[in-house]
């Protein structure tokens, strides 16, 4: 015996699917053009719906950008962080997270442009707040792994953890910028292991006071 889904349930699933398709379209389009110049008309065209239909799922452009930022945050905190959780050793976890993050960007090259574009906007819109909170959460994750590494004696106790976290995130950002300048975002996956090797070496160095 077959049952027919409830109309309300079916409509909800359809809306959820359309929202997901729209978010994917925005991320894809951000790789092709400046996110600030991306119009709802262009987004609707990419999804294959009218602007009116698009606004049935997102009341305005701000709510759409908020949903996109939320999706990016979710991807980083689930996919990237979950990879790190597979390793007990902190240095291995940091490496896995680094490489997973780079791989994520290589598959979604529009994300760096989108995040930077939102951070540069004046005011404190919801999408901007989400991105700021995500970056702060990401930084804290890196710091906590480094603290674990010190406890495990795989990271030197003399390391400036705050500065090391800045360097870790900066290495990812630097790889992305260099790849964008060169027009080959996929190349970051080849460069990432070498960059992390240098970073990991710095975590094992012990600083010496010249006065000693």
From TrEMBL:
Membrane-crossing residue ranges in chain numbering: none
Gene3D superfamilies: Tetracycline Repressor, domain 2 (1.10.357.10)
Pfam families associated with the record: TetR_N
Keywords: DNA-binding, Transcription, Transcription regulation
Residue intervals of the HTH tetR-type domain: 16-76
DNA-binding region: 39-58
InterPro entries from the UniProt entry: Homeodomain-like_sf, HTH-type_TetR-like_transc_reg, HTH_TetR, Tet_transcr_reg_TetR-rel_C_sf
Name of the molecule in the record: TetR family transcriptional regulator
